[in-house]
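Explain my protein.
***
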Amino acid sequence: MIRRIATVGGLTLVSRLTGFIRDVVMAAVLGAGPVADAFFIAFRLPNHFRAILAEGAFNAAFVPAYARTLEQSGPKAARLFSDRIAAALLAINIVLLGLALFFTPWVVGLLAPGLSDDPERYNLAVTLTRITFPSLLLVSMQTMVSGELNANGRFAAAAGAPILLNICMVVTLLFAHWFPTAGQAAAWGVLIAGVAQVLLVGIDAEKHGIGIRVRMPRLDEPTRKFLKALGPAIIGAGGVQLALFADTLIASYLPTGALSALYYADRINQLPIGVVGIAVGTVLLPEMSRRLAAGDEKGAASAQARGIQLALLLTVPCAAAAIAIPDLIMRALFARGAFTVADAAAAGMTLAAYSIGLLPFVLLRSFTAPFYARGDTATPVKAALLAMGVNVALKLALAYFGSFAQVGLAFATSVGAWINLSLLAVFARRQGFLVSGAAIGKPVTKLITVSYTH
């Protein structure tokens, strides 16, 4: 398992490093003004839906169901199951895409109402969203194929796919003078990357005989179990995305540059989340699903303990550094071109607020994995929705009614993450599969003490 985590983590690190290059180029080309704000809204909207329909809810329900079918009924049954689910996913995405493209002005106005006072940002956000939104369909199919690959123990292509997004966006931004605006250059880069990502995982899946052949859905037993798990997962993922929608909505009323500060701070915060948290979670979910399907409860618990221990050992130093020297980090990484020292300072304060919640952000996938692997998507929903309620209330209090601007939004997000993780631990303890502190070990506690006191 450690080797697989290293594979995913290594490729994710390459993805984050190329993502940093992308963000440096984007900051230099777009700056932190109205064009950048409009693009970040257009970039976030399909990402919110992707997190609900693809990487979040769908993955949580599909990977355990596919792994269980593969373990208990063999490759042919698993292939048939995935083909039928693919047809349903494709149909849902086509309908959603058509509605989104037709109602784009209304959607942008609903989710970022503060832009209505700035026609330039609003109109540009509408234009850019119509370019980026079709990437949802492409990424949804890529995520499903990636789930199949992961369940079959193949992680490289799926983990490497995000690298293509960064490469495509850098290329289009470098040739921004060919486009009407730099924002359109970035938006087209997103869409082109979606095509490239589907091709990458699709070719790898076909190479190993697990590609998708779309077939008519049938309500057989595996499909019913999948749908039963999918419903609560969608509600939970939707709750999380509502909290993120609140960021976009409230930030649209804040001064120009708030959305950009949130974006760049979140990008740095996402580095350890992606390299460690997502890498561990990506490997842990199919690993626990296979072990539980085979009746190996002890092996599943051991896998989770190893994953949590590794995540903590790698994350604690990152959190300590981001809280201690956020301004220095943001100035060193982004203060060039159209992105000023003042912009870096604003993003630095936001980074410090995000980093308070870095540990729970990283650990969430490891703590939800035992629920999802058992087909229980409802319990994580309870934790997510309760945390979301506190999160959104705190966002309004600190950023909208208070005077903490985007820093308040980031801090509220961190508080919500701690509440979410704590609730998951309580629920796991009640159900009898909370990993023990002894299994994680004293070295982690010792490292936390050293990191925060030196």
